[in-house]
């Protein structure tokens, strides 16, 4: 059908392309004037057969498909209508979070959790007056135009709301000994995107690589900017001082109060005295145990030691004196 329509127009206007070129250059010549009725006839034929130019369909576009915003600041999501014929198209906005859609703009009013915080701006933009971290989601603009050949179009926009870090929790040891290892820690969980961490010693930032700074060339520390750890393999006297940590992302930064870390030399005299005291206690305890053994304090008495020993009896027979010349039986004599 489209081929026959094109053939009809080519017969009606033999030099159709040339005429269009002449008329489009604003050269309103006699030839162009004579071709206008034929052009109108071709257009009517096309429309009657359903061949409507695509420019009469609704088409949407946006300036940014991925949008970043700072928390508590305004942000506008653009939904621009490039072409449309319908006078009052139906405009809807939906918020898609975790795969679940909900209305943001429906039946000519703001809905959902943006009801008091957003407004529709011409032609179909959504202005969020104060974005929050809960607004991070995908937003879909939908426009329906019933009078257009292409009567529907939609566009998807991703919004991410940056959240400023809160004051991080820092842990700095009060005192360490020269030559030992130790770790300082720093962490916060509110910032979005995830915070990066920096450490400061006596109000000067520690470089990520100690070799890059003349002051830290001989230091043995390492910094993990993702976890906030500051680890010393071998502490030096020069590492003593005030330390604080800073959490930072694109929305801002926050830092913890400074804390003092003292570094002490190895106390050899104290170690010797402690060892000597331990040996003395051990010797005294050993001597006391040996002395107690010698005195029999740990000997267990038998039960028979408290019983009296009765004199032995000779089968109930009592012998008389030698001068008596006879013997007699006792009543306890048993045969």
Automatic annotation (TrEMBL):
> Which parts pass through the membrane?
268-290
Q: What is this protein called?
A: Junctional adhesion molecule 3
The family database entries (Pfam families) matched by this protein are listed as:
Ig_3
Q: Which residues form the Ig-like domain?
A: 53-158, 165-261
Keywords, ordered alphabetically:
Cell junction, Cell membrane, Disulfide bond, Immunoglobulin domain, Membrane, Signal, Tight junction, Transmembrane, Transmembrane helix
Q: Which domain of life is it from?
A: Eukaryota
Show which residues constitute the signal peptide.
1-21
Q: Where is the composition biased (Polar residues)?
A: 210-225
Identify its membrane topology class: Single-pass type I membrane protein
* One annotated GO molecular function: protein heterodimerization activity
Tell me where in or outside the cell this protein is found.
Answer: Cell junction, Tight junction; Cell membrane
Q: Which gene encodes it?
A: jam3a
Q: Which GO terms describe its cellular component?
A: bicellular tight junction; cell-cell contact zone; plasma membrane; protein complex involved in cell adhesion
Q: Which family does it belong to?
A: Belongs to the immunoglobulin superfamily.
**InterPro entries, alphabetically?**
Ig-like_dom, Ig-like_dom_sf, Ig-like_fold, Ig_sub, Ig_sub2, JAM-C
Q: Where is this region: Disordered?
A: 205-227
Biological process terms from the Gene Ontology for this record are: cell migration
